[in-house]
Amino acid sequence: MKISRILHAGYVFESGGTQILFDPIFENPFSRNCHAFPDVRFDPDQIRQLTPDAIFISHFHDDHCSFDSLHLLPRATPVYLYCLFEELFAMLRELGFTNVNSLEIDQPVHVGAFEIIARRALDDEVDSMFHIRAEGLNILNVVDSWMDPHTLEQLKAYAPWDMVLWPFQTMREVDVIAPSRTRDGDTAPELVCAPVPAMAGARATPAVALPDDWPGQLQALNPRYVVPSSCQFVQEPWSWYNHAMFPITYRQFAQDAGAWLPAAHVVRLDPSVAFELTPQALTPAAPLPWVIPVGDQDVDFQYDPAIKPPATADIARRFPALTVEQAALVLDFCQRGLLQKYEEMELPDDSYFMEPRRWQLTVFDHDGSGRRFRYRIHGDSIERADIEDGSIAAATDSQPLGWTTEIPAAKLYAGLALGESLTSMYLRINGAPEDADIADDPLIRCLFNDAFGAYQAAQLKRLKETA
Q1: Is the peptide bond before 279 cis (omega within 30 degrees of 0)?
Q2: Band of pLDDT at residue 209, cut at 50, 70 and 90
Q3: What gap in Å lies between CA 255 and CA 266, rounded to an integer?
Q4: Is 386 exposed, middle or buried (0-12, 13-18, 19+ CB in 10 A)?
Q5: 432 with 353: CB under 8 angstroms?
Q6: What's the rounded mean pLDDT across residues 151-159?
Q7: Among 1, 141, 312, 358, which residue's beta carbon has the most beta carbons within 10 A?
Q8: Helix, strand, or coil (residue 370)
Q9: In terms of domains, do 189 and 44 share one?
């Protein structure tokens, strides 16, 4: 069985003349600001010549299901997708795919030499994992989900696994969205003392404590080979996220996994790299010719727990000015659309905003200037509490602010019109109490509550307009 890495959680599996693509992404950057790490480029002409026997997609997130990438593949290719929402299946058919199928948990799908079984992930409303069987081999592709305890018991029956593709990298999304809440001076609570050796010429990266349940889970699976998988990306070169989002290095994972599994081999599989797996060995194979490495591939994450987040105004200067029409859309949303959307939703009983609150939203333009919008919120009710005609609106009451939110105007527009994901919006929350859920943020709720497939819908619209 030949196993090749595309990018992020994307793989090509080949056996007995059958070729299957898993979560194929042929874009750099993907998801708007996820830049391949290590860096690669793609040859779209060669990709258009591919004739895979099937495409398997683990879930609907845009870094796994991107229409710009799928657009390059033959429309007769069977697509197997794990998703609870019929809208995405309909969009795939509208893109032109004629054989679109829903994956059911624990139900085998046979494609040529392969048997593929979707396994239940911890968040089974979103994710799935893939159990891949061929040539008498068992491979578990955990994709980027968390392991469900009941599924782990089920999968122990197949131990020792021949290979496990393990999502080794955790994302500190809360830390970068609400840094004032999760950071205390120059330290982070997960930081431990031991530094991980850095690459030549790079500074040492402090180690962090890996999730407590990982050793037991990997030991239960008892794989021959472990591939640190998923999260092979960084943000824009100037982004502070590159030293704040991903705390775990490849080297630390290899070191810790090697201690947990002394008989296993930890194998790094960079984009384009391929191996041939047999019951006896894992040997290098010809790389994917249409994934082209760029520059040094022996790179690692450099986490800095003491990094100071730049002001949102400075981040906003990195993005181009909005057009008159785009700026009008953003302004109308802040003045009217946000209020309407908020009142259409049902607030959880334990929400921070169940009590009367004052909330401020500041939207920063490309020149770093900010426009403030203040609101009075009580439960499901919201109203303006500012002067509408000022470039920086003034509050009309004296009640103190607690929770405030900042965002670049370009990113707010992208969230409204282009399906931008929260991870790439550079949204900043200040003053959120420790016991409050950041998903309570009114802007986050209005942009993402009950929103599904916005990224793919925007892609589909653009692809149809340019066809």
Answers
A1: no
A2: confident
A3: 9
A4: buried
A5: no
A6: 97
A7: 141
A8: strand
A9: yes
Q: What is the pLDDT of residue 11?
A: 98
- Describe the crossing of helices 454-465 and 86-95 by its angle, rounded to 10 degrees: 20
**Residue 303 within a domain:** no
pLDDT digits (tens, 9 = 90+) for 399-408: 678 899 999 9
In a domain, 300, yes or no: no
pTM above threshold 0.70: yes
The reply to whether 446 falls in a domain is yes
Token code pair at residue 304: 């800095």
Containing 344, the helix (H) or strand (E) segment is helix 338-344
CATH number of the CATH domain containing 253: 3.60.15.10
Instruction: Look at residue 237 and give its three-state secondary structure.
Output: coil
CA neighbor of 141 nearest in space, from 172, 164, 110, 115: 164
Q: Where are the beta strands (DSSP E) in 142-245?
A: 163-167, 191-196, 205-208, 225-229, 233-234
Last residue of a domain, one of 293, 328, 358: 293
Domains in the chain: how many in total?
2
What is the sign of the dihedral through the CA atoms of 94, 98, 103 and 104? positive
What does the block give as tokens for 196?
């991980």
234 in the same domain as 169: yes
What residues have CB less than 8 Å from 256, skipping those under 6 apart? Answer: 210, 215
Domain end (from 237, 264, 293): 293
Hunting for tokens 């100037």 — which residue is that?
238
Q: Do 289 and 316 fall within a single domain?
A: no
301 falls within a domain = no
Check residue 207 and give its pLDDT. 72
Its domain, for residue 320, covers 312-465
